[in-house]
Structures are given as structure tokens and as C-alpha cells.
Design brief:
Elements: H1 3-27, H2 30-66, E1 70-73, H3 76-80, H4 82-88, E2 93-95, H5 100-105, E3 111-114
Antiparallel strand pairs: 1-3, 2-3
Helix pairs in contact: 1-2
């Protein structure tokens, strides 16, 4: 399971535990309330851990892309025919500003990174 799927399942579990906790609080069942509070705490810690892993993974990937020797913004024509561009430029990595990697890198326009000038 990748990090994104794991994070989604943990958020689903957290939501389920919170709903069950609310129901137990309405009933006044103290044993169940304590159990769900412990489980909510554990799942919250695990979510924070997975988000940290995602951040480290993005930072690593962003560093690898940033270390490529050549970069430039792509024109609208190049963006329209991305397949042709990728065939002509070996090792091209295209980063869009709206992706997680693009936001992490602080990119404002669609940018291409490559080992050689293109």
C-alpha cells in the first residue's frame, strides 16, 4: 500500500472512531469512551508519521529534479504536444505548479528539467 492509500485508510478509521466516540458519549459508556480516545490518539500519531514520510519523499524527489543541470519554462506549444517533446528530449521531467511536487518546489509555471539543454 502506498502512502496516499494508507493515509486515506487512516483518515477513514479516524472518522469512524470519532463517530463511535460521539455515540458512546451520548450513551455515557465510560469504558468505550476511553478506548476510542486511545485509538483516536494512536491513529492521529500514525497519520502525522505518514504525512512526515510523504514530505520527506517529496523533498527527496524535488532535490533530485532540482539537481538536473538544465531547466526552463515550457511554452504553450510544447505543453500542447508533450509526447513529441518527451521523445526528443531524453530524461525530461515536467513539473506542473499545481502538483504536490510543484507546490513543494515553489514553481509558478509548467517547467521542464533535463540533463541536457533543450
Amino acid at each position: 500500500m502506498n502512502l496516499k492509500q494508507e493515509l486515506q485508510s487512516l483518515n477513514d478509521k479516524l472518522d469512524k472512531f470519532r463517530r463511535k466516540l460521539a455515540a458512546a458519549e451520548q450513551r455515557g459508556d465510560t469504558a468505550i469512551i476511553m478506548q476510542f480516545k486511545r485509538e483516536i490518539t494512536a491513529v492521529t500519531k500514525r497519520i502525522a508519521n505518514v504525512k512526515g514520510q510523504q514530505t520527506r519523499q517529496l523533498n527527496k524527489e524535488g532535490g533530485e529534479v532540482r539537481n538536473l543541470p538544465f531547466k526552463r519554462e515550457l511554452t504553450k506549444a510544447e505543453q500542447a504536444d508533450m509526447g513529441k517533446l518527451k521523445k526528443t528530449v531524453k530524461g525530461l521531467v515536467v513539473v506542473h505548479p499545481m502538483t504536490a511536487l510543484g507546490r513543494e518546489m515553489g514553481i509558478k509555471a509548467v517547467t521542464g528539467f533535463a540533463p541536457n539543454k533543450f
